Structures are given as structure tokens and as C-alpha cells.
Predict the structure.
Amino acid sequence: MSPIPASNPLRPAPLRMARYCVLLSSALALAACGGGGPASKDADASRASIPVEVASATHQSITANYSGTATLEAVGEAQVVAKTTGIVQKLLVEEGMRVQKGQLLALLDDDAARNKLDQAEATLKKAQAAFDKAEKGLALKITPRTQYDSDKYDLETQRAIVAGARLDLSYTRIVAPISGVISKRSVKLGNLVQANQALFEIVDMDPLQAVLNVPERDLDTLKAGQPVRMRVDALAGRTFEGRIARVAPVVDAASGTFRATCEFRDASGTLKPGMFGRIEVAYDQRHDALVVPRTSILEEDGESAVFVIEPAPAKPDVAKGKPGEAVAAEAKPKAPTFVARRRLVKTGYAEGDRIEIREGLRDDDRVITIGRNAVRDGTEVQVIEAAPAAPAAIAAAAPEKAQ
């Protein structure tokens, strides 16, 4: 092999060679002085410890909630349509106005309808006179029975015509079929409207309903009359109280869910149909439950488990080095060591970031909340305090340092 030219970057420079020799000499010196002795073994053991954060199992109150999302819907909703043809002469309401059932919303041109009614009433008077004459003649036996029956039929027919003309005239008055708020106006003053043309939309916003599609496993937990709370993102997370109005008695086979209809009454009118709400139903509560953070739970193969920390077994003493070194090692206190133990648990209710433990833990057991995925049963761990010192404690310690 030919020698490497002096300009080749692979050849170490004199300065690099000098540094390399110094580092090599230092490493050999440390090895000769016992660098691989007990102190280095302790350092390796501390580096092998997995840093974790823990929390204690404590007794607290916990509420069983079902959470879901739904869109608000109006209970009553009606589309007001024209029942006759005519020109809009008056508009008496606008969008956003609240109206009562039967209230006048608009007026159509009624000239043609009134003329028709006048003609029908005039014909009715003529028919009534003919029938009265036939009735008197029948009593005097000078009018045939057939004539009497014909006049009577004509009178009844004309009465029906008059009633129809009055109904057509009433159709020129557009009235509200339900109480509610005008959500849409689809006509303008002077428009010619046709029969069955949409004019207004009215929604009844008291109450509003939201339908939850609940998994069938909760069929026995949700009942009609239970209180519910709804948080609406569009209203800065405000919370509104309501109740379950009814629960469907059947489960949808396709989705495996059933319908729970929640009802909300808002006298302020803040809630609107179409808003998206997050609904919680509190169906049970335990006042003395053993709870841990949810982040401590491991779900594996259909089982729930946690890692509990226990004091590590005591290690045998190792040989000390030189007298001076031994004193220095003893002067530095050792941090307590722990090991992680996997323990199966039976969980109960969950609320927020807490979950109930019904079996598998005792009071004040400490479970791993952060770092649990990096440990196994028997792994040595190093506990890190998650919460910083309280400000009051820091303020109390400050004068002592000043002294």
C-alpha cells in the first residue's frame, strides 16, 4: 500500500495526535488508579435507573359520567306557506321577532276573495228565499214534495259555497301556526305569491333538544329525568343545565347505539338551534373511592395494570478504596432507590384525569404516572418530584440564605 500523502485529510495533524495521546494516557492512569472500582459501578447503576414521576393512591369522591356530543334542535319548527294566490300588501314581522300562535304575519290582496264571497252570499239569499217559499207551500199542500227537496238541496249547496268563499278570504291573512321565533322570511312587500309558496319559517326554541347516540352497554345507566350538563364551545364554554326527556326503548342494530333525547330550557334565549354541545350525564357517585391518575393505567390484553414503586433490596457493601476516598464517599448521602412492580388492578368509574381502583391497590401505594412505558417488572427507577417547591416555602428560605 502506498503511503498517504501529506495533504490527505485522513492523516492526523500533529495537534490532533498530541490530544489523542493525552486522552489515552489519562484513561490508562484512571484504570491503574482503580477507575473501574466501586465508584464507577455505582455510577453505572444510577445511569441504569429509569427516571419516573409517581402519584399516591388516595380516597376521593368520584362521579360516574357519560360524555357525548350532539347538535341542538328546535322542538317545534314550522314552515308558513301561502294557501291562496295574491299580492303581499303588508308585512308585519321580521326575522328574529318572537310571535304567538295565531298572530298575523302578513296580508295579501283580498279584493278577488271578497268579491267571490259577496256573490256567494247574494246567491245564498236567493236560495234561502226559494226554500222558505217551498216550505210554506209544502205546509199548505200547494208545493210538490220534489220541489221542496230541490230547493232545500240548492240552499245547502249555496251555504257550502259561502263557507268556501269565507275560507278563501281568510287565507289572505297569513298567521303563525305555532309560537316561536321567525327564523327566515322568504317574501317581500309587493311580491305575487302562489299557493303553497314558502313565506316564513318559525322555530320554537323553548325547549331545545339534543339527541345522544349512546352505546348499548349504557342502556341501564341512562334514564329519563336524569340531570345533564351541556358545554357550548360557541359561547365561551358556558355550561347549561338540562335533563333527559326520554330514552329510546330499542337499540339500533346497525350502529349498536340507542337514542337519549336531552332537553334544555334557556330563558335568556342564548342557545340557538344548530349549536354544537358537549353533554355530560352524571348517573352515579362514590364518596370514598380509591383513585389514581388515569395516566398510570396500562391496558394490555384486556387487563388493566399499574406499576407500583417499592424500595429496592439492600445491596451488599463493596470494598472501600484508599482511606481518603472512603471518607469522601461516605460524606455524600445516597439517594433512595426503588424498583417498579407490575400489579393487575380492577378499575371502576372514571372522571376527568382520575380513575377509580376497586381491586389491586392499597392506600398510599405510589404508582408511576410518567415513564411507565419505559419500565418492566423489577426495573430500578429514580423518582423525580413532579411538583416544584411552593412559593411560600421559597420565600421562607430566602432570609436564611441572606443571613
Q: What stands out?
A: The chain has a mean pLDDT of 81. The chain has six helices and 19 strands. The CA atoms of residues 345 and 380 lie 21 Å apart.
